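Render this sequence as a predicted structure.
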Amino acid sequence: MMAAGAAVALALWLLLAAVGVGEAGPPPIQDGEFTFLLPAGRKQCFYQSAPANASLETEYQVIGGAGLDVDFTLESPQGVLLVSESRKADGVHTVEPTEAGDYRLCFDNSFSTISEKLVFFELIFDSFQDEEEVEGWAEAVEPEEMLDVRMEDIKESVETMRTRLERSIQMLTLLRAFEARDRNLQEDNLERVNFWSAANVAVLLLVAVLQVCTLKRFFHDKRPVPT
């Protein structure tokens, strides 16, 4: 009976989430990730809209290019400099609470004259509006229709599951970025090893040829002594 009641309540919650409960608010801002190529001597900026009184987490990594470093700045919608880092390979920054408006994220590779950089960054939002939306489905169901199921327990379990799934997706994205950076670093090291190995082999062959020629010249220079 309890399991059936939980299933009915969960189905009702999904239906209410699909059609909307109460007044329709603004659509939530989705998390995002982006990978781009930053040319040498260039600076590139991105703008991200954010709601008021939310949490914004910014994470970036340099996954390709010589040195694996870049300059990073983060500015508020009012133009206030929140974060400024110089020649970093990665970084994680959280803005809480956020202001309503467009945040500016800039990646600067001006210090490099020949090496371009492959940069990955991710934006993660945690809005308090989501919690208010979760409260709506419980208010739409009358207490006598709950079928002896504790709605608060169901709501807490669903919210915990959603949070863990979102964190799992973020960790998988982060691991993919680490894997791409390590792969690029290994490919660069492989090219260096192959180049210097070929150079060493060429030097060894040259030394061997010179030694053989020198020995032959010693034997050819010996003439018979006249009697």
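Summary. Residues 6-26 have pLDDT under 50 and may be disordered. The helical segments are 2-19, 128-139, 151-221.
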